Q: What sequence folds into this?
């Protein structure tokens, strides 16, 4: 057995802004992101040994890499209100919602428990950098990065997800069993969504640095084989059409407030005498039809701004602190040109053409062209460094800074 004389936390690099989409990546076992999307995404599982080569390289040099976030740090995160955490125990199955006091979370040498921490990309820079690796997938699909830490035997039981997920092994080993079974009925007698009947078809043991991709509705069960086993899950949301259209319609209805011509009252000077007074008048129907035609409510372009705004909303647990004290507009401009500004880790930014939405609000509406260009760049790169902006004090860019949605920090280091 190899004797390791050095153990250190893995430091994930930040991905470059322009990802090489047609170049083979170790992360996908020597195929490119373009090939991965065509052959595997939303289609079939993919197991990648050595997806993060640093773990194998360190092992060859008689060194050992550990997770970027220690068990002790995760316990501290689980005690915070702003971090969504869950504690799951098996034998028998039990489920508790955080935050948790330190003495509630089992010690590493205790078996059959799992601590789940959701949205860690908003709380730890290493998790945020891991997410940057997957920006060849649209931001609108990204949900978050969840960290799971467990004692031996820990897991959440055989289950399925309705979304795509990348399972990255960061510490210890985990046994994965998967199945493409059609029977996805759940056991009604358990507090967790555990499959009633699970018959696995494939089985692997993942070592640190390995990764398993699973498309939606693939049944799977992961069991920790080592104390302190950590799995990092990058999940991609898949909202229903009902959800998207409801949100789009709601925001579209709100936008009608900006159309004063709709304040005009219905009038029917051409209404004839009728002997079917209980029926909705044909004249009202016709005039509504004309209004809908003018508003183009049958065209998708009318719905997309509201849907984009909805998908740019931050998670419910997101908290933003205003800068104290805030920079003056002049100082803000100076710092923007020297240091640059980044999106807060909990901020979501999406674009619809040249329209940019941040945390549910359209930031480019009624803005000067230079502010619109700045937002377009910020949306693409999640970082903005620009000089020679003119009037900034009443701009949406400065207001987003005052709200804590944008923060000044050093430009993240890129891939090396």
A:
């Amino acid at each position: 057995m190899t004797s390791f004389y050095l153990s250190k936390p893995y430091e994930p690099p930040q991905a470059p802004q322009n990802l090489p989409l047609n170049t083979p990546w170790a992360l996908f076992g020597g195929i490119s992101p373009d090939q991965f999307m065509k052959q595997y995404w939303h289609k079939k599982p993919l197991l990648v040994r050595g997806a993060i080569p640093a773990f194998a390289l360190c092992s060859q040099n008689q060194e050992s890499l550990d997770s970027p976030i220690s068990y002790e740090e995760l316990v501290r995160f689980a005690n915070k209100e702003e971090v969504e955490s869950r504690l799951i125990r098996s034998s028998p199955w039990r489920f508790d919602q955080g935050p948790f006091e330190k003495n509630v979370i089992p010690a590493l040498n205790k078996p059959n428990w799992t601590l789940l921490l959701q949205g860690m990309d908003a709380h730890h820079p290493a998790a945020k950098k891991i997410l940057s690796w997957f920006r060849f997938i649209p931001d609108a699909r990204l949900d978050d990065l969840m960290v799971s830490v467990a004692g031996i035997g820990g897991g959440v039981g055989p289950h399925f997800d309705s979304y795509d997920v990348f399972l990255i092994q960061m510490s210890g080993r985990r046994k994965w069993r998967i199945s493409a079974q059609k029977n996805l009925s759940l056991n009604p007698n358990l507090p967790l969504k555990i499959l009633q009947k699970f018959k696995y078809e494939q089985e692997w043991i993942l070592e640190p640095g390995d990764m398993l991709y699973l498309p939606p509705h693939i049944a799977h069960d992961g069991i920790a084989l080592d104390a302190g086993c950590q799995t990092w899950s990058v999940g991609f949301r898949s909202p229903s059409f009902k959800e998207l259209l409801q949100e789009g319609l709601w925001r579209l209805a709100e936008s009608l407030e900006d159309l004063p011509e709709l304040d005009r009252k219905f009038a029917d000077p051409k209404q004839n005498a009728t002997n079917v007074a209980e029926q909705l008048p044909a004249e009202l129907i016709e005039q509504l039809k004309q209004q809908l035609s003018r508003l183009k409510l049958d065209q998708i372009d009318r719905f997309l701004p509201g849907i984009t705004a909805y998908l740019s909303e931050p998670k419910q647990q997101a908290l933003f602190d205003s800068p104290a004290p805030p920079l003056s507009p002049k100082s803000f401009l100076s710092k923007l040109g020297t240091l640059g500004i980044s999106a807060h880790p909990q901020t979501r930014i999406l674009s619809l053409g040249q329209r940019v939405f941040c945390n549910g609000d359209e930031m480019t509406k009624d803005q000067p062209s230079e502010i619109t260009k700045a937002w377009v760049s910020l949306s693409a790169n999640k970082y903005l460094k620009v000089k020679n902006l003119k009037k900034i004090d009443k701009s949406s860019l400065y207001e987003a800074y005052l709200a804590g949605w944008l923060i000044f920090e050093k430009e993240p280091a890129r891939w090396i």
Summary: The chain is about 25% helix and 20% strand.
